[in-house]
Fold this protein.
Amino acid sequence: MDNDTKHTKSHSYNTIALYCGEKNTSIQNDLRKSATFCDAKIVLEDGGCIPVHRVILCSATEFFHKLFMSPVSAEQNNNYFIKYVRTGIMECVINFAYTFICDINETNLCELLTTAEYFCYTSLVDRCAEYIQSILNVKNCISLMLMTRKCLFKHDIQRKTRGYVLRNFISVATSNTDILSLSCNDLVDIIMDDALNSKSEEPVWELCLRWIEFDEENRKQYVPRLLENVRLGLIKQDYFERRVLNHNYVQLCPEAKPIVNTAHKFVSDLDEIDWLNERDTDISLLVPRLPSDVLFAIGGWYDGSACLLFETYDVRADRWIEFHFSDPNGPRAYHSAAVIGSKIYFIGGYSGSEYYNKCTVFDVKTKMWREIAPMHYRRCYVSVCVFNDRIYAMGGHDGHSRLRAVESYNPETNQWTLMCSMALRRSDADACELNGQIYIVGGFDGSICLRSCEVYNPEKDEWSYIPEMLNARSGLKCVPYNGQVFAVGGYNGLSRLSTCEAYSPQTFFWASVHDMISPRSNFGIEVIDDTIYVSGGFDGLSTINKVEYYRAENNEWKPAAGMNHHRSAHAIAKVSDFSNIEDFVYESRLAFGEGRQVM
């Protein structure tokens, strides 16, 4: 049969199957099950025999098209024999071809996926991948990663399962039992990856110890190889000496001694290392991991005017990096940012002369700016929050008065929609989402700094009051943290604040939290690795570049590396797990003689 004839016949099959599918897929399947109008039988090695309509299967995948178009002898009587597939799995494949429904479960997943790949049945492979994505969790991610690597090496789900393991490393390392059964090659492949998400290297080495203990006699030989792939130079000295340098596995392994002795130099005192004479040293021991989240700080008030400054923060290297991706709308300050996927939306603000209703979006993957629909209102000092992939802009100052108005942006339609207004006028407040509710706290009503707070129910489109804060705060920031709303810093009408407080929706109560090191208003705030970071702002005397972080486990604030420029009223955005994260992190990751503090 020539190619034109094949193409015509294939097109006819697809057209007929599409027509049948539009009519009623369940009728097709009922006809198959009753063997009505069937013109072929699929015969399996285990004795199964399934009547089918060739036209339906031909439209599903080229495999069946080629099978049915091959010469058939009279003895075969339209029976088509398929090897290596069980009848139950073949029933699932055929049922999907007829109904687009497939009973996928963890028991049949691997076999069904292998069969779908064997048949080059792309839509069924994709359906299996969707199922894998839906069930992926800490307990099964290792087994799913190995399965997708074996069956779907080129499919995106393979990257996603591996990415899940790296992103959730701490939980996987402590509670996944499959990880202890990995081969040495597979374990090394994980622990050597720059994208492994761990704030410190101690959990990485602890996993290595647990892995060796699981089969001690056969695995002690791999101690040197594991040591070579742990960032030993980033481990704290007391832990290194106790759990690495003096551990029995290391002490009893001559090949491990040079590795740990070299690392001990870094751990003990970086300042004593003669970098010019250490050229043979493997300084990969000190390379920080890539962060899974990157902070973007855009615009703000700098040197007496609005600016175009664009910086990112690499939490693993504790470094701010400056870029030159200028917003085409020009400088802006007192604006807000919202993140949906890999896109950062910049809302409202002030140019120094104009109050903006303009909004732009920066795509971190393409590094391109785009203007989106303007808001109904001009909004400087605007509060912004994301819920269900919609952006909510609340309050602000339009150049004449403070606003109660609220509007919502839908990225799919590029439209802003007016929502129920707040009870009070608020500018210089802040908002965050917690458990499906949007909280807005503090602000300035044109006369006084506010203690009052409101909560918005997006489903009902209505606002209600919650208890007032302990302190009046304008120019504050708030974030959801540990199941509470944290309100940080601000201005009380007399001075800039270093005080912080947290609201519990369970107890309806505000409680004081440890003070920041520096007082500040109109600063940036975000949460990374269960840690609150604040950056820049105005301390009552000048704009600052100071950065500090708070962890609930020790209830205190500590300093981090400062931004490259002193500024306030900038927008901060956290973007997570994007494909080109390396483009926005600290480039000189091998410049380790600087005495860098690693977070």
Summary: The chain has 16 helices and 29 strands. The radius of gyration is 30 Å.
